[in-house]
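Bench notes, afternoon.
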Amino acid sequence: MADRARPVTVSVVIPTHDRGRVVVEAIESALAQTHPPLEVIVVDDGSTDDTAERVGRLRDARVRYLRRPHAGVSAARNAGIAAATGDLVAFLDSDDLWKPDKVEAEIKAKFGDMKTPAKARKRPEGGVPPLPEEVLMKNPELVPLVSTHPPKPLPPF
């Protein structure tokens, strides 16, 4: 049976903390991407301003809002990764904007036709999907995130 290909899906993670005045513009720049399908996950890292109200005014099913106690930007990004359902995860800071073709250009650079075999992208339990073999062959600088080799012990202090 032939392996069907489907468009690569992208989860955009936007960590934010007290940036209600600018986060909506960042979200809108992510939603304006020329490459669908896409989801936008806004991770509010304990904001005390009007971030929740401003994000709540957006009526787009592609936007998910996660509020968590303040733990820093790295923890917010990790929460966004855990919530992501896309084949790929992209990070957008809440005070930045993307050009409309940013995601499309990056996917074309890595995957060519923006499609990869479905079997190559299956997410392992608790992990990220592996990169397709043809991508690794064309891009030897990419290395898998999970190594099959045990870590080397650190030298004593």
